[in-house]
Design brief:
Elements: H1 14-24, E1 29-30, H2 37-40, E2 53-55, H3 60-73, E3 77-80, E4 99-102, E5 109-113, E6 118-122, H4 127-136, E7 139-140, H5 153-158, H6 166-169, E8 176-183, E9 188-191, H7 205-208, E10 216-224, E11 226-227, E12 231-239, H8 242-256, E13 260-267, H9 268-277, E14 291-299, H10 305-319, E15 325-328, H11 332-343, H12 345-348, E16 355-356, E17 359-361, H13 367-381, E18 386-392, E19 397-403, H14 410-414, H15 417-430, H16 446-452, H17 455-468
Parallel strand pairs: 2-4, 3-4
Antiparallel strand pairs: 1-2, 5-6, 6-10, 7-11, 8-9, 8-10, 12-14, 12-15, 13-14, 13-18, 16-19, 17-19, 18-19
Helix pairs in contact: 1-3, 8-10, 13-15
């Protein structure tokens, strides 16, 4: 059997399905195809699959029993969180022989320790809920994504999510102290340690974070909490060109240091479609600009220093003619309005037709070159196409999306997906970047991974997979 090929697994018999159902109970199993739709397709319906069964375990022990039976009977398992992934890692293939294990019922906050700045949560906890529970004890859990109202912690960790706060706090991996994981053979690894220092051999948790459910199923995690900022200063600024964004970032970093908690880049066309399709979206600036940045500085003391730093930064930028216009948020409501413009960027693109998407990273100094070269490439490949490069300038992660030409047929545009992606990725690799910054590999980038990883890297990955999942039952066909 090829451990990476889901089609080689036999379809589970009715008797076997009944044995799986007995673990979670009839009320927590979905067997009818027409009731499974929300588990079988991701939001864009770019990936749609079939499944023999959806199981919704309510405890780590039930997950353990499911995997014991799956490993014994060679049944393929697809772990799934909030189903917000963008590379198809959470969607089964169309053979219909895989069993989905949804972690949504594992949704307890097990413990919060404000003094130790930790929170232990189960995998099915919604990210927004984790943020709210931290807030109740005057702490901050800084992971922030556009999908935070529906994505789940287990999925966030399995894909090593990034988000808008990575500049200051790191990605999901940096916000975890310990994990609880059910291995492929059903054994439970209790690694829920709250220690800040534990230098006792290999750091096993990092193997599972970002593995997309191919090595084990994360069922709980110890998350790091942080002191809440006592004040925040936020500005929305218009720029003449993307090169000025880099120069402005250097000034912001120099003035604010570690208190620079947000530096997001938006293109003119991106803001235009947000204003066109986003509810209650308004341009804070009087005139249109080719580029925009959203900058936030967060202070630990409510002494006005964040506003002073922001004003100093804008003063220097205006003097050097890096900024054409800027508005500083005068209230929490206006700050929320600024961030909403950024958060709607992904959602509104669908209203303009087909969108070919990239989640890439390059060295920060290479961002302007990436965008300029990619814009030239895609508009030559597909005349009239409308690039929408936006994202986390401060950590080099650009969501380089391309919207179809106005008069072009949507399917004819999407049929050129592979060629466009290959061209953009070639530029990214030439700039010593990555083809996946925060979305993972899943199904979408599996073949591309083989082209960009060295043979020795792929061999190490396959060896790790074989050690943790000897029978290849966990999310086969994903990543590798």
């Amino acid at each position: 059997m090829n451990a990476h090929d889901p089609s080689t697994f036999a379809a589970p018999s009715d008797e076997l399905l009944d044995r799986f159902i007995s673990i979670v109970g009839n009320g927590n199993a979905i067997r009818e195809p027409d009731e499974m739709d929300s588990y079988l397709a991701e939001l864009r319906r770019l990936y749609v699959g079939k499944s023999a069964l959806v199981l919704r375990p309510g405890s780590t022990e039930e997950v353990s029993e499911i995997l014991k039976l799956a490993n014994k009977t060679r049944t393929a398992i697809v772990p799934q969180g909030g189903n917000t992934g963008l590379v198809g890692g959470q969607i089964p293939f169309d053979a219909g022989n895989e069993v989905i294990v949804s972690l949504s019922r594992l949704n307890r906050i097990r413990e919060i320790d404000p003094l130790g700045n930790t929170m232990t949560v189960e995998a099915g906890v919604i990210l927004e809920q984790a943020q709210q529970e931290a807030d109740k004890v005057d702490r901050l859990f800084p992971l922030s994504l556009a999908s935070e109202g529906s994505c789940q912690i287990g999925g966030n960790l399995s894909t090593n999510a990034g988000g808008t706060a990575m500049l200051a706090y790191g990605n999901a991996r940096d916000m975890v102290l310990g994990l609880e994981v059910v291995l492929a053979d059903g054994r439970i690894w209790d690694g829920l340690r709250t220690l800040r220092k534990d230098n006792t051999g290999y750091d096993l948790k990092d193997l599972f974070i970002g593995a997309e459910g191919t090595l084990g199923i994360i069922t709980a995690a110890v998350l790091k909490l942080f002191p809440k900022p006592e004040e925040q200063a936020t500005t929305f600024a218009g720029l003449a060109n993307v090169e000025d964004a880099g120069r402005l970032f250097a000034i912001a970093r120099q003035i604010a240091g570690a208190e620079l908690t947000g530096f997001e880049l938006l293109p003119r066309f991106g803001l235009e479609i947000v204003l066109k399709h986003g509810s209650q979206a308004r341009n804070p600036l009087a005139e249109a600009h080719d580029w925009y940045v959203l900058i936030e500085i967060s202070g630990r003391e409510a002494n006005g220093s964040s506003s002073a730093r922001l004003e100093d930064m804008l003063g220097q930028a205006l003097e050097k003619e890096l900024v054409q216009d800027a508005v500083i948020a005068s209230s929490l409501s206006q700050r929320s309005d600024f961030w909403r413009l950024r958060e709607l960027m992904s959602e509104v693109q669908g209203h303009e037709g087909g969108s070919i998407k990239h989640d890439v990273s390059v060295p920060i100094s290479s961002i302007p070159e990436l965008i300029n070269r990619a814009n030239k490439l895609v508009t030559e490949m597909i005349p009239g196409s409308r690039p929408v490069p936006f994202g986390h300038y401060g950590d080099g992660n650009i969501h380089y999306n391309v919207t179809q030409p106005v008069e072009m047929d949507k399917q004819a545009f999407l049929d050129q997906w592979d060629e466009v992606v290959a061209g953009v990725h070639e530029i990214v690799l030439d700039l010593k970047g990555s083809i996946s910054a925060e979305h993972g590999i899943g199904r979408m980038k599996r073949e591309t991974l083989r082209k960009v990883k060295a043979d020795v890297e792929l061999e190490m990955m396959r060896n790790i997979k074989s050690v943790f999942d000897r029978n290849g039952i966990l999310n086969p066909g994903k990543v590798l």
